[in-house]
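Hi R.,

Here's the chain you asked about this morning:
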Amino acid sequence: MTIANICGGPLSGALLRRVMALLAAWSVCVLAALGWGLRREWPDFVHDSYGFPFPWAIHTLVTFTGPADFWVVNINALILNLVFWHGVLGAALALLLRKRR
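And the predicted structure, written out as tokens:
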């Protein structure tokens, strides 16, 4: 299934450029959201959480016993992040293509 089939005909050059610009910008935003790190410093515990809106990786740096280098990766949260961002992309494309009519 192509974009032309979805929107009911061939895309004009201007609309195709807008769709391609949206896809390129969205790719950058998804990569930034998945790699977004947030440091949390609690007494005797420091860790970095990666992923937005759902943290999918946690890197523990310091515990009460001293320095640490421990990673916890949650694949389910990573998949949930990708489903979320692809759903928002689908909605944005639907709005962009709906404007055409």
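DSSP finds three helices and four strands in the chain.

Let me know if you need anything else.
M.
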